[in-house]
Please model this.
Amino acid sequence: MAYLGSPSATKEVINKYSFAFQKKFGQNFLIDSNILENIVEAAEITKDDFVLEIGPGIGTMTQYLCEAARQVTAVEIDKMLIPILEDTLSEYDNVEVINQDVLKVDIKSLTNEKNVGRPIKVVANLPYYITTPIIMGLFESGVPIDSITIMVQKEVAERMQTGPGSKEYGALSLAVQYYADAKVMLNVSASCFMPRPNVDSAVIKLTRHKEPVVEVKDEKLMFRVIRASFNQRRKTLVNGLKNSAELDFSKEEIVSAIHHIGKEESIRGEKLTLEEFAKLSNYLYRG
Ligand code: SAM
Model:
């Protein structure tokens, strides 16, 4: 039975191994069994599923995942946690722990090997500074993904869900919306972690679209256009695109593309929807 989701059980493990929390790895462990149950429920894990857990810590959520899933692979960067995980997960024979930086793991091969290329579910309570590279890496690498259920800083959850007009709207919002349907599943207060972080968190579920929601001729080009538009937030879209080192369109080409999507030359990038960015980049595409 999963037993780690309480302050006393976590303290016991920490003391037994004289474990020292590492700030650089963003180590804040969950200590609330309700939240853990809710995360696993939100991820809709069944006995058919292969789950990739990123950052298992001492194995608190991993225990819940092992009970719900067919197979779990947990990738943990901190080698000091490996003997602890061997101990806390010893009851389970459907889990493998990999001691690696997840950004260096070939998740596509892992998925092929463990789940014969079928879509996987990813569950993670991660340090917040690697949230964006991990999410983008998973989506862009072509790994078959069913969903990513992930704990993020509350503001990041808002950023992922928001649209034009909000000051939180940016490249991450557009990327997430391009690949997935984003839904905040629960809010998690700082008191549910040990040690307590300085920010409140939320669990967001990104369910990958089965079919693309917009038609894009060249994804890379669209994301370059998006990045260029938000790099210089206070500038107009024309200037943002013109000044980008990643793009080489003339002012005339850019203005003509903006008119093509029915906008004025003075528009700012932050006003465009995903669909408009798709149309804009399709127009700029040279084939
Ligand atoms: N899942 C556990 C829980 O909920 O209690 C631990 C969460 S803690 C916020 C984040 C975990 O991710 C830590 O165990 C940390 O060592 C690990 N981690 C940090 N960076 C990582 C990386 N690049 N690759 C894999 N694991 C990482």
The radius of gyration is 21 Å. DSSP finds twelve helices and nine strands in the chain.
